[in-house]
Amino acid sequence: MQPRPAIADLTPYEPGKPAAEVRRETGLHRVVKLASNEGAYGPFPAALEAIERHVRGLNRYPEQSYELIERLAQEHAVAPGQVALGNGADALIGYLSAAYLDPGDEAAMCWPSFQSYVLDARKMGGVPVHAPLRDGAYDLDELAARIGRRTRLVYVCTPNNPTGSMVGREPLRRFLDAVPEQVLVVVDQAYREYIDDPDYPDAIAEHVGRRPNVAVLRTFSKIYGLAGLRIGYLVGPPETVRELGRVRNAFDVSELAHVAALASLGETGELARRRELVAEGRHELLAGLRELSVPVHPTCANFLCAEVGDGRAVASALLREGVIVRPLHAVDAPGHIRVTVGTSEEHAVFLDALGRALPHR
After folding, report:
1. What number does CATH give the domain 5-42+268-357?
2. Residues 16 and 38: beta-carbon distance below 8 Å
């Protein structure tokens, strides 16, 4: 049977190589995984306790979504009907495409950016429209110029994945005020909790409700340490949440993800501690890359984007030494790799291996 034309030549998202597979292939016991922007630290202690309390009830379908939605609504001072949950923020991007894109409709974004914006639009027969980045961040003037009569969705990824650069408060406000109200703008803030720059906006508090066409994505996969449980959420107009409800899969967020996320809320002290550790690790990585004369985009997230000449070749050389990073050819940045901030020990292994992997070494 022939697939739909929209997906016939689609290249699927390729996650970072599993550490267990690298161990089998290389015979190495020590493997450093810095490819997938995961938090370097595990779930909060309260989340682990919640998982242990609920693990014996896994013969039942999830029941905790209403409580989590209510807590998130309180956290962000919105109505519960403005919150949608998903199997990671990634699933919500897929639901947005399913809800809003007919064949030929456009989804606009700067590029390179998060690959799912493109993949999920194309799955629906939609047309991804790209604007360039400026210094690694979304160029909102260029993005606004790409909005046309077929544009239904616009993504603003800040900080941008894979570069790590952010959009400031006033540029975002001006952009949102200029976008026609019939176009839904999705501000992806998956890495918000890592940022302490006072110019970084809280798009939920500042724009959801102020504008009728703004939705914001957040996730528990990063600083909260719950990537393996897959849970993210969207805050936006009630109409958008209702449309997502029409296309979402039943019970798409597991019970353990619900209770772990719920238990993680309110842990402001641990959030601050992790934010500081990541900032220290980011500075450590940047200093090491400067010593190797490797250019890096400005970054405020828990990852950085480094220009290494041939990203695939360098990533392959690192892999042979048990270091997993993300080459960026899939997002049209073949000369770059993306590296997650890890621990000091992991950074030392990575930088040592990179010194041998770079083409001029």
Report:
1. 3.90.1150.10
2. no
Tokens at 131, concatenated: 């604007």
Q: What is the pTM of this model?
A: 0.96
> How far apart are the C-alpha atoms of 250 and 147, rounded to whole Å?
33
Averaged pLDDT, 298-318: 96
Asked if 226 and 261 touch (Cβ cutoff 8 Å), the reply is yes
Report which of 123, 129, 96 is spatially closest to residue 214, judged by C-alpha positions. 96
Looking at 12-21, 128-137, 166-175, 201-210, which range is the least confident one?
Answer: 12-21
Q: How confident is the model at residue 46 (pLDDT cuts 50, 70, 90)?
A: very high
The neighbouring-strand residues paired with 84 are 234
Q: Phi and psi (nearest 5°) for 322?
A: 85, 20
Q: What pLDDT, on the 0 to 100 scale, is given for residue 360?
A: 67
How does DSSP classify residue 7? Answer: G
| C-alpha–C-alpha distance, residues 184 and 84, integer Å | 15
The Cβ of residue 151 has, within 10 Å, a number of other Cβ atoms equal to: 19
Secondary structure letter of residue 208 according to DSSP:
B
Tokens of 140: 């909102």
CA distance 301 to 316: 24
Name, in order, each residue with C-beta under 8 angstroms of 361's C-beta and a sequence gap of 6 or more: 355
CB burial of 187-199 (b: ≥16 within 10 Å; e: otherwise) equals: bbbbbbbbbeeee
Where do the domains of the chain lie?
Answer: 5-42+268-357, 45-264
Q: What is the CA radius of gyration of the chain?
A: 20
Per CATH, the number for 45-264 is 3.40.640.10
Fill in the DSSP letter of residue 15: P
Q: How many degrees, rounded to 5, is the angle at CA 18 between CA 12 and CA 20? A: 150
Q: What is the token pair recorded at 179? A: 């976008």
Q: What is the pLDDT of residue 11?
A: 79
Q: How far is CA 111 from CA 153, 185, 300, 333, in A?
A: 15, 16, 18, 9
The amino acid sitting at 263 is A
Parallel, antiparallel or unpaired: strands 106-111 and 127-134: parallel
Minimum mean pLDDT range among 11-25, 166-180, 227-241: 11-25
Q: Is the peptide bond preceding residue 5 cis, with omega within 30 degrees of 0?
A: no
**Sign of the Cα pseudo-torsion (188, 168, 143, 76, in order):** positive
